[in-house]
Design a protein that fits this description.
The chain is of the alpha+beta class. The protein has one helix and three strands. The radius of gyration is 16 Å and the shape is globular.
């Protein structure tokens, strides 16, 4: 159920997302309207698809510390 609470790429359904900046991508009028109404700009890291969603993206989990945790 947790996977439905975050944005996913509409093309490949992955949740590895970043944000895109408007100077690097000129969105169509419909997309700009959605951004104006509170949508969030997302970009899929895998397929590089730019889209707008009203859901937040899932933050990546921090990497586990594997160096020296058991060293004595």
């Amino acid at each position: 159920m947790d996977s439905w609470s975050h944005a996913r790429c509409p093309k490949c359904f992955r949740s590895e997302l970043t944000d895109w900046e408007e100077p690097y991508y000129y969105p169509p009028r419909r997309v700009r309207m959605l951004l104006h109404f509170g949508g969030k700009a997302h970009r899929c890291r895998v397929c590089r698809y730019n889209f707008v969603s009203f859901m937040n993206r899932k933050e990546p989990k921090p990497a586990a510390d594997t160096k020296g945790s058991a060293a004595a």
